[in-house]
Amino acid sequence: MHPLTESPLTDPTNLYRYRDALYAEDLLIVGLVHLDFFSALAAEPVNVADICQRHQLASRPADVLLTLFCAMGLIELKGDRFEVTLVAREHLVAASRWFLGPYYASLKDRPVVTDLLRVLRSGRPANWGSQADQLDWHQAMERPEFAQQFTEAMDCRGVFLAQALAKHLPLESARSLLDIAGGSGIYACSFCAHFPGLRATVLEKPPVDRIAAGAIERRGLVNRVSVVAGDMLTEPLPGGHDVHLYSNVLHDWDVPVVRKLLARSFAALPAGGSLLIHDAFLNRDKSGPLHVAEYSVMLMHATQGRCYGVGELEGLLEETGFVGFQEYPGGAARGGLLARKPSSLGS
Description:
- The chain is of the alpha/beta class.
- 45% of the residues lie in helices and 14% in strands.
- A seven-stranded mixed sheet has the order 5-4-3-6-7-9-8, with helices on both faces. The protein has a two-stranded antiparallel sheet with strand order 1-2.
- Strand 6, helix 13 and strand 7 form a beta-alpha-beta unit.
- Helix 5 runs antiparallel to helix 14 and helix 10 runs parallel beside helix 11.
């Protein structure tokens, strides 16, 4: 097994991006060809609500579309209204002599393009990988074969991402970590490898709980990392842990579910306990970075979520009762956001 404290000699960020960005150009095709988004916006700059009404978009995927086009440098927010940039006005507006619409139109029936158009209108995720015989990601994870394949994919990603974050974290005094929806347990195992005094529990639904138990055993960490079967969405979180971890979890869910999960962590954590969110974060004005905006399109397609801005998450954490927010660097455009449950009222 891979030693969980080692870093690679080279930076794989671009290799992550090739995969993370696969659906971003398809969303540009939807905007340009199916919606004529840029021509409409050039004629009349409007706010988010008007954009949703104009193109009949659901709010979650509309957020992803606007974030991507901002990160691509095609639109910009001025006050509360979005406007096209010069590059979009010259090349993506139908009245322009340099209009590229016909160049993209031949791709308008790509499976992911048609999927994304449905997601934009309905707000519901598409089938995993646009496969006709596949369920959406959340339902597919209940099938043992798909769950094994997907968990292995996230495990190989986590070998790099977990150590890239762990080496920056101040968890020396932490005693017990609850890795919520922790997949294979790669983050729990890596954090324990970095912090010798730490023990961890991975909370996962069947059949992933059994997959996690096998992976932890193969890593030789069964004496420090355990697995508990449970559903974070329907059951209270187990107590007895002074750190909660959501690694690449919140981005699978829309705001109401994120609020519910943060509230459950706040209830289960002891006074002074910590909540760590590890994810790909948008910047505070949600104008990028482009890598994360591209990744958000893939999440919009296959899950009920999207990427969140640091400011968005801090607002949700603050309304839940958390304080003391700190950001930490990670790998491949990911990072950590650490918050604390007050040790006493008003602290």
